[in-house]
Design a protein that fits this description.
Helix content of chain A: 25-40%
Number of domains of chain B: 2
Radius of gyration of chain B: 22 Å
Helix content of chain B: 25-40%
Distance between the termini of chain B: 25 Å
Number of strands of chain B: 15
Strand order of the largest sheet of chain B: 1-4-3-2
CATH topology of the largest domain in chain B: Cytochrome-c3 Hydrogenase, chain B
Structural class of chain B: alpha+beta
Chains: A alpha/beta (about 260), B alpha+beta (about 500), C mainly alpha (about 675)
Strand order of the largest sheet of chain A: 5-11-10-9-7-8
Order of helices and strands of chain A: HHEHEEHEEEHEHEEHEHEHH
Oligomer: heterotrimer
Distance between the termini of chain A: 54 Å
Number of helices of chain B: 16
CATH architecture of the largest domain in chain B: Orthogonal Bundle
Largest interface: A-B, 64 and 65 residues
CATH architecture of the domain at 109-262 in chain A: 3-Layer(aba) Sandwich
Chain lengths: ~260, ~500, ~675
């Protein structure tokens, strides 16, 4: 059988998300949740102490976890199962860096609203033709697989009018992975400069958000924020294709922003 | 493991060359800070075990540390000597080309000096320097291919010196995404170290975690429970399938076989979903830990084996179709050839080496975990052609074997009466140097880890990418621009593992 | 007509004054004045000829001039065909001459002299009413080519090029002389109008072949194109336009005249002309596409154009063979239109190249960058000239190439297998050529005219570019290239008038409805270049306006950034895509024609490579790389002939080994032979 009929022999493989719910989207253990932010147990303190990326903050009043630092090693869920739980669902991306911090946090409405409006203004004309330029600013290689996976028939972002473009000249969104090494600083700036305004910047993965476990050494690499103004943050180590897609659609205003947080 | 210390760099140099001449495989070279000086350590595969050939290097009155270069006689040392010059400041005297590889520094800058206690040293990198030009001739120019490349790629720069179309010469500059991984290991406990190891080459997380854990387990003198050993095989082979499918996908993409690209993308996604079903991570991260596997993993069951069976059938079917598509094979045949002699001289590992008849596979040579108890074929899949097609053929065979090994390992897993997945009794890694290996999809992963008081003092993560990518220089004979993606995909290396 | 004689006199005077100016030990100012006078005389003569030709074409009686004496018949006669070619040749010569006066080379004496001889010889050939004048002009032209090509004979390769030009000219002169003599033996008249009378079929056909061969050498048809690229390139900048744009047309004139006086050729000759034309076209454009030198690139495109024109001429021959006046007219009209476009485009390119070479002091394309930015006029000339030769709409080349293809497509009207096949082959090759031509000239426009600016040109290097005469010359030629397309119907009327004797007026139907061109046959296809001149700029304007309106003026807000090079910091002394490299894929694609060879080698220190530096080793050596292309014809046709040629020369040397008595004997034999011939002619 030639390739073309063979290609349709397995029927439709593509997910219905975001129009229809998808089990893999909903079930994936994409984040850690602070189930009891005010339950200051010794276990919780031990978990914070043992967290390899110091993502957990325990203050006098409460516990918070920075998903931008969390590398999903699950150590805290083993040490303090009552306080930290694995949270299922790939809708983990957020607008604004502070929105990645969960648990005992104060909400800053004003700045966030301004940022949201600014992004909405920038993506207003994009419609169903969105072009993404990806830059690896020092990843471990897995993030590229996950971005690339968006093109496979299961996710198939082309159906949503989203394309990955080789030239920054055609790009509307800059998608950055990796810890933001010293060496990638200039290339990253050159790529941003090579894009026509307006631009939305999405940081993908804990590496890009904070440097994760590897960043912070002598090559810098504490995330890409020192180089670029980031609009949307996608946590994860690495962020899964669904999380990345969620981040892209969040930037485009095509999915509601953080439903769980809204109702908390 | 045998440690062979030498007193003077010259005797070290000669002994090392003699060992390689008598059949030992050169597997890596690194240095570690040692008081005011440094210790230079070469890793050799001596068949049954790994040897380290070591020599202390003391600074001369001007503070310069040097040793006689290996590269003129031992080609595969070429990049290692450059890398350790960047990181530790050791100068190989007589090196053919001591350009920066991993870390271009501004003159006078301190160096990271892995193994040393200099965490606050000020490293001034000079990364945005212009690349070299080697070829002269009419109409020649340099096509800068990277670091931000067309499509979703890891950042690396290829400088193609070309008169248009032909690629007579190219330079590779991986330093853009140098993350300083070596220093990130130091001072960590083994259970944190394994997390760093997983990030050396993210697409081979399991293999790196295994190699690191093997080093830790050797240092601590512990053996993981049998069930953990079989589960490790399942995860490692799943990772192999995903990586090889990725190579197949990229090759098909380069050839414009849209349906095949989509199908292999789908199969890869399926494989990664199985991995995430088992471990909670699509890359099998945090699953392998020193002493066994993490608690809370899902154990393969009948349903999963059924799923794998379907996947195996689909992959085999599509592989057969692909290898029967003339327009595809035409692009691979004779593309990016590396002959057997070259592969042996450069001690190439993984599918690249095996496709050129260089038979190195740690699952056979230095059997670990469940592999020793499972019935492996007599020898790993090899090929003689040495071109992109041969590399793909080797990978198809390995995918086939991987499915069989997963079945066998799952069966063996369930037969074990010992229910433990991880050692419960406390252990500590003994101080000193320890070596661990694992066969990643890209080839041998080799960890040389020094422990001090149960913590990591120095960790040399020898990725297959660092070892093999240097051969990319010589893979272009009559090949032209449009062959580049094929050769690159057929190498299937992770550049994170090169830049470290 | 006295006008023609006067002009001939003017050219002769120009040549003489130019020669005098070149005598050493004269005051510089006087020399400059004399040189300028020589150029001005040539310009004046050119203007006079244009006037005369225009009058003839406008319908005034054919002009003839002759002197009583040995030559009883008209020595100089300008009929409509001659007038047409005079108009083309001297029409493009005029701006070329105007531009040349300002060039640095023009101040060097005697170039004007050589150019004046070229013009004089061109005039004699085209206006020659009898075989004697034609041959006189023809030999004069060969001599003048030798002089002009070898003008800078101390530069490498120039002397060889001059000898090649001279040698091939001699061959062509011999062929024409032989053909004329054969016909004369039967008609006993030197007058071209009646020279073919009474000759039997075989003699006519032989003469036909010899004429075509002889004239084809001048236009550079394969395989006798060998001399053309090196000779054109060797000539000094300003003179190239005269040789390649103006003087080359005498070759086409000769072919047209042959068709006029001899009528139908043997059928096989038509086939050969078609196929050889097609092959010449593809060979020429292949080399033009990949050549690394501007002058050679333009010269090779002359070979290509010779092929395309000869394909059109071949169609006309087929029309003559099959006695289809319309078919003949379609072919000849297309070929003449292509002659016009080629003359304009080629002159413009070479005039521009002269300005460029003057400023950059090189014609190596890899070193020519951002020409349009540094030299706006020469750059514009290069661009428009390239567009014309690539046959892009809004230039003269578009209509002519369209007509050529249309003429070749009339193949279905011929019912003869060999002719059919030849037409089909020529059609395919010409179509392929036109496609490749766009690649060739894209390179010229994109990289040479508009490439990234990497060298700043010192102001004094722009002296030639800044002179008003150069600007006038280029402007006139640009106007010609674009204007001819805008008034294409008028051009067709003029050409039809020039060809009416050969085509029996059939060419008049090429224009229909006042605006529209058709390949002579009605109802096949139609094109209006004049309408395109309204429509295309209109659309561009419309799109620009729409974009501006829709974008809300953001259209004009531009943020400039560096070109995208994969975000790389670049390499030391980095440069973008070289012209050479851009052409390299074509070297690969056309490897069968070009015999591309590439090799990686360690260069010796002499050729720029460095080996064995202190810290360099096996992996650090400086490498050298070359890619070579070969002219197949030169390699496989001429090179094997060289040993044989050497042997003949050796044998000939023995005949004249410096013995005075032998010389005396040869001269005696020669005088006797001449006497015998003269007596024979007088008695008959």
């Amino acid at each position: 059988m030639p390739w073309v009929p063979h290609g349709i022999s397995n029927g439709k493989l593509t997910t219905g998300w975001p129009k229809k719910p998808d089990d893999y989207f909903d079930d994936f253990p994409a984040a850690i949740e602070v189930a009891a932010p005010w339950n200051l147990t010794d276990d919780a303190r031990a978990a914070a102490w043992q967290c390899p990326t110091s993502a957990i903050q325990v203050t006098a009043v409460g516990i918070s976890l920075d998903r931008g630092r969390c590398i999903l090693c699950r150590r805290c869920t083993l040490i303090a199962p009552g306080t930290f739980t694995v949270s299922h669902g790939s809708d983990t991306s957020r607008i604004g860096r502070d929105a990645l911090i969960v648990g005992d946090v104060k909400e800053e409405h004003e700045a966030l609203t301004m940022l949201r409006d600014s992004i909405a203004e920038r993506v207003r004309h994009l419609g169903r033709s969105v072009h993404i330029r990806h830059v690896d600013a020092g990843s471990d290689g897995s993030d590229e697989w996950e971005v690339q996976a968006l093109l496979n028939p299961v996710y198939d972002i082309h159906r949503l009018g989203i394309f990955i473009t080789p030239s920054p000249r055609h790009a509307d969104i800059l998608l950055v992975t990796g810890i933001g090494t010293e060496g990638m600083r200039e290339p990253l700036v050159r790529t941003r400069d090579g894009m026509p305004d307006p631009v939305v910047v999405i940081a993908v993965g804990a590496d890009a958000a904070s440097g994760g476990l590897i960043g912070g050494g002598y090559t810098g690499g504490v995330g890409i924020e020192p180089v670029l103004d980031v609009d949307v943050w996608v946590p994860g180590a690495p962020a899964t294709p669904f999380s990345i897609l969620h981040g892209i659609l969040l930037a485009l205003g095509r999915v509601p922003a953080g439903p769980r947080e809204e109702h908390r | 493991m045998t440690r062979r210390p030498y007193e003077s760099p010259d005797s070290w140099h000669d002994a090392l060359l003699a060992a390689v001449a008598s059949g030992a495989r050169f597997a890596g070279l690194y240095s570690t800070a040692d008081g005011p000086g440094a210790r230079l350590i070469a890793l050799l595969d001596a068949g049954e075990r790994f040897d380290t050939v070591e020599v202390p290097i003391t600074p001369d009155p001007t503070g310069r540390m040097s040793y006689p270069s290996l590269s003129p006689q031992l080609p595969p040392a070429f990049w290692y000597e450059r890398a350790l010059h960047d990181l530790s400041g050791l100068t190989p005297v007589g090196h053919p080309r001591l350009d920066p590889l991993l870390l271009p520094l501004t003159p006078g800058s301190a160096r990271p000096e892995p193994g040393g206690n200099n965490h606050h040293a000020r490293i001034a990198a000079d990364t945005d320097t212009q690349g070299p030009v080697d070829v002269t001739g009419h109409g020649l120019f340099t096509l800068t291919f990277g670091p931000v490349r067309s499509g979703v790629f890891e950042s690396i720069e290829f400088l193609l010196e070309t008169p248009g179309e032909d690629i007579p010469h190219l330079n590779i500059r991986p330093h853009f995404k140098h993350r300083g991984v070596a220093k990130r290991f130091e001072g960590r406990r083994p259970d944190d170290g394994v997390l760093v190891a997983e990030r050396v080459e993210g697409i081979a997380s399991v293999a790196h975690a295994l190699a690191f854990s093997h080093a830790v387990e050797a240092a601590a003198g512990i053996v993981p429970p049998p069930r953990a050993q079989y589960l490790r095989v399942v995860l490692a082979e799943l990772e192999r399938i995903a990586n090889h499918l990725d190579v197949a996908m990229r090759l098909c993409d380069a050839a414009g076989l849209a349906v095949a690209t989509s199908r292999f993308g789908w199969h890869k996604e399926t494989t990664m979903r199985i991995m995430s079903h088992l471990t909670g991570s699509r890359f099998g991260r945090t699953a392998v830990v020193p002493g066994g596997v993490r608690l809370g993993l899902t154990v393969p069951d009948e349903a999963l084996l059924g799923e794998l069976k379907t996947l195996h059938k689909r992959v085999s079917d599509d592989a057969r179709r692909t290898m029967g598509t003339p327009s595809f094979l035409d692009r691979l045949r004779g593309t990016g050839p590396l002959d057997a002699d070259y592969a042996a001289r450069w001690a190439l590992v993984g599918p690249i080496g095996r496709a050129s008849g260089h038979r190195v596979d740690d699952r056979w040579d230095h059997s670990y975990d469940g592999y020793g108890h499972l019935s492996l074929p007599g020898s790993p899949a090899t090929d003689e052609d040495g071109d992109a097609r041969a590399r793909l053929r080797v990978r198809w065979s390995e995918i086939d074997l991987a499915f069989k090994l997963i079945n066998a390992a799952t069966a063996a897993f369930t037969m074990q009466s010992d229910p433990r997945l991880i050692l419960e009794e406390p252990w500590q890694a003994a101080s000193g140097l320890s070596i661990g290996v694992a066969e990643a999809p890209q080839g041998e992963v080799l960890y040389a880890v020094s422990f001090q008081d149960g913590q990591i003092a120095r960790c040399f993560a020898r990725s297959p990418a660092l070892h093999n990518l240097v051969a990319f220089h010589d893979a272009f004979r009559t090949d032209i621009f449009t062959d580049f993606p094929f050769i690159e995909a057929s190498f299937g290396l992770s550049y994170a593992g090169v830049a470290m | 007509m006295t006008l023609i004689l006067t002009t001939a006199g003017l050219f002769a005077a120009a040549a003489l004054i130019g020669w005098i100016a070149g005598i050493p030990h004269r005051a510089r100012r006087a020399r400059h004045a004399l040189t300028l006078a020589s150029w001005l005389l040539s310009i004046a003569g050119t203007v006079l000829i244009l006037t005369a030709a225009a009058r003839v074409l406008a319908g005034h009686a054919a002009a003839a001039a002759g002197t009583q004496g040995v030559l009883t018949e008209s020595a100089l006669r300008v009929d409509r065909l001659s007038a047409l070619f005079l108009l083309i040749s001297f029409g493009v010569a005029l701006p070329a001459l105007i531009s040349a006066t300002a060039s640095r080379a023009a101040h060097r004496a005697r170039l004007s002299s050589g150019v004046a001889i070229v013009l004089l010889a061109t005039l004699l050939v085209i206006a020659g009413g009898n075989l004697f004048t034609l041959l006189l002009g023809w030999e004069g032209l060969g001599f003048a080519f030798y002089l002009v090509v070898g003008y800078d004979r101390r530069k490498p390769g120039r002397a060889r090029a001059a000898v090649l030009a001279g040698a091939f000219s001699s061959f062509s002169g011999a062929a024409v002389l032989l053909a004329g003599s054969l016909l004369y033996a039967y008609s006993h008249t030197l007058d071209l109008a009646g020279i073919a009378d009474g000759a039997p079929r075989l003699i006519r056909d032989t003469a036909y072949v010899l004429f075509v061969f002889g004239f084809a050498i001048k236009v550079g048809l394969m395989p006798v194109h060998l001399w053309l690229p090196p000779s054109y390139s060797a000539a000094p900048g300003p003179a190239r336009a005269i040789l390649a744009g103006s003087a080359v047309n005498v070759g086409f004139y000769g072919l047209w005249r042959t068709l006029h006086i001899l009528g139908a050729p043997p059928a096989w000759l038509a086939c050969v002309v078609l196929i050889v034309g097609g092959i010449t076209a593809i060979l020429g454009i292949s080399h033009a596409t990949v050549h690394a030198d501007l002058a050679y690139l333009i010269s090779w495109s002359s070979v290509e154009n010779a092929g395309v024109i000869l394909a059109g001429y071949g169609v006309a021959l087929v029309g003559a063979v099959t006695h289809h006046p319309q078919f003949l007219a379609a072919g000849l009209l297309a070929a003449t239109a292509q002659v016009v476009a080629h003359a304009l485009g080629k002159s413009l390119l070479f005039v521009s190249a002269a300005g460029i070479e003057d400023a950059y002091e090189t014609t190596d394309l890899d070193q020519l960058r951002a020409v349009a930015r540094n030299l706006p006029f020469s750059g514009a000339g290069l661009t428009i000239g390239a567009l014309t030769l690539a046959g892009i709409p809004l230039t003269a080349g578009f209509a002519s190439e369209w007509l050529t293809l249309e003429a070749l497509m009339q193949q279905f009207r011929v019912h003869d297998l060999p002719l059919d096949l030849s037409l089909a082959i020529a059609g395919v090759l010409v179509a392929l050529t036109i496609g490749v031509a766009s690649v060739a000239f894209v390179r010229l426009i994109a990289l040479t005219a508009f490439g990234r600016k990497n060298t700043a040109l010192r102001p004094e290097r722009r002296h030639y570019e800044r002179s008003w005469t150069h600007r006038l010359g280029i402007s006139l030629l640009i106007l010609g290239c674009l204007g001819v397309a805008a008034i294409a119907p008028l051009e067709m009327h003029v050409i039809a008038a020039g060809l009416d004797r050969i085509t029996d007026g059939a060419a008049n139907t090429a224009v229909t409805g006042g605006w529209i061109l058709q390949p002579v046959y009605a109802g096949f296809s139609a094109l209006s270049p004049s309408l395109l001149w309204i429509v295309i700029p209109g659309y561009v304007l419309l799109v620009a306006l729409l974009s501006w309106a829709i974008s809300g003026r953001r259209f004009l807000k531009v943020r400039r950034v560096v070109p995208w090079t994969s975000a790389s910091p670049g390499v030391a002394h980095g440069r973008g895509y070289t012209s050479f490299a851009f052409a390299n894929p074509m070297r690969k694609v056309l490897a069968a024609v070009l015999l591309t060879k590439g090799e990686l080698r360690r260069e010796e220190a002499a050729s720029g490579g460095r080996v064995g530096d202190e810290d360099q080793g096996p992996r650090g050596v400086q490498l050298g790389y070359t890619v070579d292309v070969v002219d197949v014809v030169e390699r496989y046709l001429y090179r094997p002939l060289i040993p044989a040629g050497r042997r003949i020369v050796h044998a000939a040397q023995r005949l004249q080994s410096g013995r005075l008595d032998a010389y005396m004997a040869y001269m005696l034999i020669a005088v006797l032979a001449i006497l015998a011939v003269v007596t024979g002619i007088a008695q008959s």
